[in-house]
């Protein structure tokens, strides 16, 4: 089936894939040669010195120690983002023991190779810690490499789920691309307060109509238990992407934590990782598996589900780690031919549990393969190409894990639709370019009449400045909020979600408003038009630093332009506005990241400290 489907791949998808292959040829070949050389050397454990080996199994029990000392079984690395403060990662506490047990049954050993940090943007929103958030992705990649550097492992399972954690783990895994890698999700929390109700309460608080107690109660009813937040932001987009890129087991992404099915999938993931090492007959190194077609599949999935705009940076950085060069033009061109199949908050009222119940990933993948929008003939950790991912996991009566065909029909067309009758014809992500630079805008949650906004600029150097102006009643009439010096070189590129409630209030009152910023917003950016990730950023000589209050700014998601309507002579005489960035460079650990701010690349090249 895969060969037949792959011969019908959409012409634009094929064109984009082929140009990525051509553009990446030299860097991809060098990468593949590097991991092939590492693979040729074979498993390194037996080649270690006696003292090295003894250190590696000193704390193991007798049977594990004997296997590592004399046996030829697999040694499976566990790289974990567990902590018990974050709801999404708390379920990982019990995973290592499940994985160890599975490894022993398969004649091998599993060891926790290392931990990586996992911070939560939901906790740090609007706080100084948010300025470490994007950089944490590259710290996670570095931590992953350190975890695997003992060279005593034959494969790895990665326990991570949220915003920067999964991209960082992927980048780190690709630095050991000769090893197989299986990603193991923990699943979303059960549904709480509906997301649209939560959004209304946030706006009421922004307007001063309710107090902090009411707001905290609503937030607590929304974020109420173990698992990922249930809206379709970056964390759940990560899970979609790991599945459609073949790094999860089929149907694993959105099974709730602490259920028998979730535990069975975790055990099966460990077993599968043990089965695809170089010691067996089904070797699937992650660096070879994640080729240009797989990254195109990931971008198509992003568009089809209305996923997080953060992935316009994360996927670029992930691909670069495999020697593959993606650009924002690739994202834009794929969006033009990818229909929007999902309405999950903030693009609709449903949450990811509703999406999963309506047919979930099996339905989405079936529709996209059937419409020629995915490369089905790719390698996956499960085998059999992406055709295997139109199935969903179930538990038989005897408790054993099995797979069945996913539903061919949507269980709720208000949440999930087929490719022939989508919510909209395109993925809703546009590349903007013009005299203010390049930016991306997500239109899938924005009313069509707001896809073009032309209004005077109101310029701010922080989201706190805008909030203060709103509370003082100084934001009236139509305007484009220009919030600058928020890029990676300036202050680590924080997400700016504290802007959304006040801008949403003003929009609901009838004003035409939009946001232009070199900072970030994620999949939860909502209903206000937002040209984000503007590059070059203000701190890197970008034209956004030249905008003044009152300049007429046009955000045009239809034409794909981002312009300032100022006479050329006047514009040419402008000098960049000064900004005092010193307060963002100290405190809450930010002084430790000076080297990151100095080395980081541009948003369109992944906003990473690594070479791209």
Automatic annotation (TrEMBL):
Record-level GO BP terms: D-gluconate metabolic process; Entner-Doudoroff pathway through 6-phosphogluconate
Catalytic function, reaction form: 6-phospho-D-gluconate = 2-dehydro-3-deoxy-6-phospho-D-gluconate + H2O
The protein's annotated pathway: Carbohydrate metabolism; Entner-Doudoroff pathway
Enzyme Commission number: 4.2.1.12
Comment on bound cofactor: Binds 1 [4Fe-4S] cluster.
MF GO annotations: 4 iron, 4 sulfur cluster binding; metal ion binding; phosphogluconate dehydratase activity
Keyword terms, alphabetized: 4Fe-4S, Carbohydrate metabolism, Gluconate utilization, Iron, Iron-sulfur, Lyase, Metal-binding
Boundaries of every Dihydroxy-acid/6-phosphogluconate dehydratase C-terminal domain copy: 415-607
GO CC, alphabetical: cytosol
Enzyme class name: lyase
Domain Dihydroxy-acid/6-phosphogluconate dehydratase N-terminal stretches: 76-386
InterPro entries: 6-phosphgluc_deHydtase, Dihydro-acid_dehy_C, DiOHA_6PGluconate_deHydtase_CS, ILV_EDD_C, ILV_EDD_N, IlvD/EDD_N
Necessary cofactors: [4Fe-4S] cluster
Residues the entry annotates as binding [4Fe-4S] cluster: 162, 229
A Pfam family matched in the record: ILVD_EDD_N
Family assignment from sequence similarity: Belongs to the IlvD/Edd family.
Function per UniProt: Catalyzes the dehydration of 6-phospho-D-gluconate to 2-dehydro-3-deoxy-6-phospho-D-gluconate.
NCBIfam families to which the protein is assigned, alphabetical: edd
UniProt name for this protein: Phosphogluconate dehydratase
Phylogenetic lineage: Bacteria, Pseudomonadati, Pseudomonadota, Alphaproteobacteria, Hyphomicrobiales
Gene responsible for this protein: edd
């Amino acid at each position: 089936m895969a060969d037949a489907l792959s011969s019908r791949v959409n012409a634009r998808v094929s064109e984009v894939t082929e140009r990525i292959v051509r553009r990446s040829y030299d860097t991809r070949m060098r990468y593949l040669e590097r991991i092939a050389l590492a693979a040729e050397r074979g498993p390194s454990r037996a080649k270690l010195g006696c003292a090295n080996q003894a250190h590696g199994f000193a704390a193991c029990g007798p049977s594990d120690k004997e296997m590592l000392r004399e046996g030829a079984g697999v040694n499976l690395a566990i790289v974990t983002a567990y902590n018990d403060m974050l709801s999404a990662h708390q379920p990982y506490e019990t995973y290592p023991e499940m994985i160890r047990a599975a490894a022993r049954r398969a004649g091998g050993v599993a060891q926790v190779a290392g931990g990586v940090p996992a911070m939560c943007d939901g906790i740090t929103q609007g706080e100084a810690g948010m300025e470490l958030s994007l950089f944490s992705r590259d710290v996670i990649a570095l931590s992953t490499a350190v975890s695997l550097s003992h060279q005593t492992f034959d494969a790895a399972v990665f326990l991570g789920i949220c915003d920067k954690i999964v991209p960082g783990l992927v980048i780190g895994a690709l630095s050991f691309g000769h090893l197989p890698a299986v990603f193991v999700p923990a699943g979303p929390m059960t549904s709480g307060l509906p997301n649209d109700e939560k959004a209304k309460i946030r706006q009421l608080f922004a307007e001063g109509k309710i107090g902090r107690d009411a707001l905290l109660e609503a937030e607590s009813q929304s974020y109420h238990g173990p698992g990922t937040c249930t809206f379709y932001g970056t964390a759940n987009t990560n899970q979609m992407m790991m599945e459609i890129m073949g790094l999860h087991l089929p149907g694993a992404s959105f099974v709730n934590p602490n259920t028998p099915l979730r535990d069975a999938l975790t055990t099966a993931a460990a077993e599968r990782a043990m089965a695809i090492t170089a010691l067996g007959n089904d070797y699937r190194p992650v660096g070879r598996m994640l080729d240009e077609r797989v990254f195109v599949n990931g971008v198509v999935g992003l568009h089809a589900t209305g996923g997080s705009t953060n992935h316009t940076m994360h996927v670029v950085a992930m691909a670069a780690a495999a020697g593959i060069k993606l650009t924002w033009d690739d994202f834009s061109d794929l969006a033009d031919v990818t229909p929007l199949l999902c309405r999950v908050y903030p693009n609709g009222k449903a949450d990811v549990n509703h999406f999963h119940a309506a047919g979930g990933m099996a339905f989405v993948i079936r529709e996209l393969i059937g419409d020629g929008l995915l490369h089905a003939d790719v390698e996956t950790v499960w085998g059999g190409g992406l055709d295997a991912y139109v199935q969903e996991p179930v538990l038989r009566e005897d408790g054993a894990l099995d797979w069945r065909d996913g539903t061919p029909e949507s269980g709720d067309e208000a949440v999930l639709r087929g490719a022939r009758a989508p919510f909209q014809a395109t993925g809703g992500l546009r590349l903007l370019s013009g005299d203010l630079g390049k930016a991306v805008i997500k239109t899938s949650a924005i009313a069509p009449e707001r896809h073009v906004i032309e209004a005077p600029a109101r310029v701010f150097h922080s989201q706190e400045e805008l909030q203060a102006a709103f509370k003082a009643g100084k934001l009236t009439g139509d305007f484009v909020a220009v919030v600058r010096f928020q890029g990676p070189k300036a202050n680590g590129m924080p997400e700016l979600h504290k802007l959304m409630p006040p801008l949403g209030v003003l929009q609901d009152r009838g004003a035409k408003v939009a946001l232009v910023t070199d900072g970030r917003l994620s999949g939860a950016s909502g209903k206000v038009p937002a040209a984000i990730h503007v590059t070059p950023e203000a701190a890197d000589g970008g034209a956004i630093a030249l905008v003044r209050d009152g300049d007429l700014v046009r955000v045009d998601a239809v034409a794909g332009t981002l312009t300032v309507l100022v006479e050329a002579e006047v514009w040419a005489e402008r000098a960049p506005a000064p900004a005092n960035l010193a307060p963002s460079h100290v405190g809450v650990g930010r002084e430790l990241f000076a080297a990151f701010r100095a080395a980081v690349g541009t948003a369109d090249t992944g906003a990473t400290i690594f070479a791209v």
